[in-house]
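Researcher: I'd like a structural prediction for the single chain below. Treat it as a standalone chain; there are no partners to consider.
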Amino acid sequence: MISTEQISSVMAKIEAMGLSDDTVSELRQQFQPIHFTYCMDDDLPNNTPVIEHKDFNIYLIDGREHCLCLTSDYDVATGIVVAEIIPD
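Model: Treating it as a single chain, here is the predicted structure.
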C-alpha cells in the first residue's frame, strides 16, 4: 500500500531536488521498501497517471503478481513510476 501522504512527500522531494537519477536514488533510500522506476512519460502511452505535474507524472505499480502492471489503486500499489515530461 502506498499512501497519498507518501506520494505528496515524493512529489515535494522531486520538486525540491529536480528530477534526475540522483533524485530517484534518494527516493529509493528514503521510502524503502517502495520500488521506484524512472522513465520518460512517452514510454507509457495510453496510460493515465494518478498524479499529473507539469514536469513529470506519477504512476502506481501493482507488484502482487509475478508480472508488474500499472494501477490506480493506492491500496494494492507496491511501487511508483516517476515519468519525466519532455516538452515538444
